[in-house]
Design brief:
The complex is a heterodimer of chains A (368) and B (259). Chain A contains 13 helices and no strands. Chain A has 368 residues and is mostly helical. The radius of gyration of chain A is 29 Å and the shape is flat. Chain B is of the alpha/beta class and 259 residues long. Chain B is globular, with a radius of gyration of 18 Å. The chains are: A mainly alpha (368), B alpha/beta (259).
């Protein structure tokens, strides 16, 4: 007959442990010590934060090594490094968003900013609004329309080319030499500097339509040079992870290969493909250099991508900053540039959210 | 409808490697034939050559003849798609199409080929196929739900329903129960017994009791060693293979004395 054993006061299964409140005590004291040290060499908030963090991590690891042993100390050291790296990575991101937000909101909230173009807004207008303290006139409507149209056409070119290339690579090539060449070239294309893509499109259209051809379509071609490799790569990966069993299941039902691809493989991969395409769009919508040499600058609304210069958000920001509408009063231009930058970031963010939504919408459904 | 298959002097190659050597076998109509043998002996490879599914694997090719009621599957100008629509296949792992509902999975053979089918014909086909696969009562209230939400055994029966919905002459099964629990296995085995009234069924299995339970005839494949081609060692009535085999290696294998 077994008797119940009472629990031992101090378990033989545990080792020395620091009390639960230790990290808080260490944190508080490192903040204080860091402040004292900073006071000696001149106080600075950023330096204080960094020093506190370093002191906290060191003290935490050392105390743990002394009391809890090597394994726990290593764990705490690794945790400190991971968290530290994360904060370092987050810092520029938060800083950029914050700066753009603070500088961009006043311009973005100015009435008419989203619904008017820069048509008729001259240096005299800006000077007057600064002098009288009236709201800044002029807006990004033309640039927003330009960005959207150019990106739309770039997508219309890139998605068929990119998706069909990916289908060839995954479904038909069977790893032959031609496909290896394509894969290599796609990799090379991924690394093409964007200005080179712009120059290619400009030179190409100069050759067939005469020099100085600058339209939204030329810009769309330049962007699609940048976009195609991204679409090929992401679609290729998505098609590759479609299980072979599904293809075999379709073949075994007497379905032809192209129908299998069209109706089984692509629908299964569509969520990944769609989100890859959305991310590719987000990637090129902020391109500046290729647009400068292909679409020109415009201050008026141009809805036709096949004729005339076209503005876009990145080139709008560039021109507003580099050549303010009123050279003597740059503030209205700067405000418009920041607002356009904020608008661009919001667009990219919406596209990213859209990608997630699309992925979820198209994902194969589960459930009973 | 049900057709017989006559295989003569069939060799299967993967590139230069001969995977299966000189198979001669006749699979009777309206019967169940089981292929047994150790792993890597070429029984699955051979099964795939019966509806040209091996062609999906790069480098795989076949020499010899496979006659489906006298028509050579490997004859000049024979379209593998035609072959596969007459000889269906069920795979080791259940693989319903994840983007489709249960109903659409059953209709996949029709819909993927863009054949027009009226609503009432489709309903009839879905019910008939699911009844044929003993799945109707379990799914009739959720036909519009995705097929991937079913249990493994139900998914496999859904795949069988999908295969019989295109009304093939022959159904090939490549270890259809190896991913299933004993109860689901029993359901599939019962189904195989019913299927043989209408179809020629060929089943590859690692489970010798299963071969003994469901098949009329059994073929034993073996391999002399790694790198050697697989061969058909013995083909006879199932009772003969299990109780009174002609070959020593067959007896060793079915009695469990083998490797």
């Amino acid at each position: 007959m077994a008797t119940l054993m009472t629990e031992r006061k101090r378990s033989a299964l545990t080792r020395g442990r620091l009390p639960k409140y230790t990290p808080y005590v260490i944190a508080a004291s490192s903040v204080v010590v860091a402040a004292a040290l900073m006071a000696l060499i001149g106080f600075h908030v950023f330096g204080w934060a960094v020093l506190s963090a370093v002191l906290f991590a060191t003290a935490n690891v050392v105390s743990s090594a002394l009391v809890e042993g090597r394994r726990k100390a290593t764990d705490k050291l690794a945790t400190s490094l991971v968290v530290g790296a994360f904060l370092v990575a987050l810092l520029p991101l938060v800083s950029v968003i914050w700066t753009v937000w603070v500088n961009g909101v006043p311009g973005l909230l100015t009435p008419g900013f989203l619904s008017t173009s820069m048509n008729g807004v001259t240096g005299a207008v800006d000077n007057a609004s600064v002098k009288d303290g009236t709201p800044v006139l002029g807006g990004v409507y033309h640039a927003l329309v330009g960005s959207i149209l150019i990106t739309l056409w770039a997508t219309l070119i890139s998605v068929p080319v990119g998706l069909l290339t990916a289908i060839y690579l995954v479904e038909y090539s069977a790893g032959n030499r031609f496909s290896k060449v394509i894969t290599f070239l796609v990799d090379v294309m991924t690394g093409i500097p964007s200005i080179v893509a712009g120059l290619f499109a400009a030179a190409f259209f100069a050759m067939i339509l005469g020099p100085g051809t600058k339209t939204g379509f030329v810009a769309a071609v330049a962007l699609s040079v940048l976009m195609i490799p991204v679409v090929v790569r992401s679609s290729e990966e998505m098609l590759k992870i479609v299980p072979n069993e599904l293809r075999e299941a379709a073949y075994a039902l007497g379905v032809r290969k192209w129908r299998t691809i069209l109706k089984v493989v692509i629908p299964t991969a569509i969520s990944g493909i769609a989100s890859g395409v959305t991310l590719a769009i987000a990637r090129v919508i902020g391109e500046t250099a290729p647009l400068l040499v292909t679409a020109g600058f415009a201050t008026t609304i141009n809805m036709n991508v096949f004729a005339g210069w076209m503005s876009s958000l990145p080139t709008f920001i560039y021109t507003q900053i580099m050549t303010p509408t009123s050279p003597s009063n740059a503030d209205p231009s700067t405000q418009r540039a920041w607002a356009a930058a904020l608008l661009l970031i919001i667009l990219v963010m919406l596209l990213n959210l859209g990608a997630r939504l699309v992925a979820r919408l198209f994902a194969p459904k589960t459930g009973r | 409808m049900s057709k017989r298959i006559d295989v003569s002097d069939l060799n299967v190659y993967y590139g230069d490697f001969r995977a299966v050597e000189d198979v001669n076998i006749t699979l009777d109509a309206k019967s169940v034939t089981a292929f047994i043998g150790p792993s890597g002996c070429g029984k699955s490879t051979f099964l795939r050559t019966l509806n040209r599914m091996h062609e999906v694997i790069p480098g795989a090719r076949v020499e010899g003849k496979v006659l489906l009621d006298g028509d050579n599957l490997y004859g000049d100008g024979v379209d593998p798609v035609t072959v596969r629509s007459q000889i269906g296949m069920v795979f080791q792992r259940p693989n319903p199409f994840p983007t489709m509902s249960i109903r659409d999975n059953v209709l996949a053979g029709v819909k993927l080929n863009n054949r027009r089918i009226s609503r009432s014909d489709a309903d009839e086909l879905v019910e008939g196929s699911l009844r044929g696969a003993n799945l109707w009562n379990e799914v009739k209230d959720r036909l519009e739900k995705p097929g991937s939400g079913l249990s493994g055994g139900q998914q496999q029966r859904l795949c069988i329903a999908r295969a019989i919905a295109v009304s093939p002459d022959v159904i090939l099964m490549d270890e259809p129960c190896s991913a299933l629990d004993p109860i689901s296995t029993l359901a599939i085995e019962d189904l195989i017994n019913e299927l043989k009234d209408e179809y020629t069924v060929v089943i590859v299995t690692h489970n010798m009791q299963q071969a003994a339970r469901v098949s009329d005839k059994t073929a034993f494949f073996n391999i002399a060693g790694t790198g050697k081609p697989g061969k058909l060692i013995e083909f006879a009535e199932t009772a003969t293979i299990f109780n009174n085999p002609r070959e020593k290696s067959t007896e060793d294998y079915v009695s469990g004395r083998f490797g």
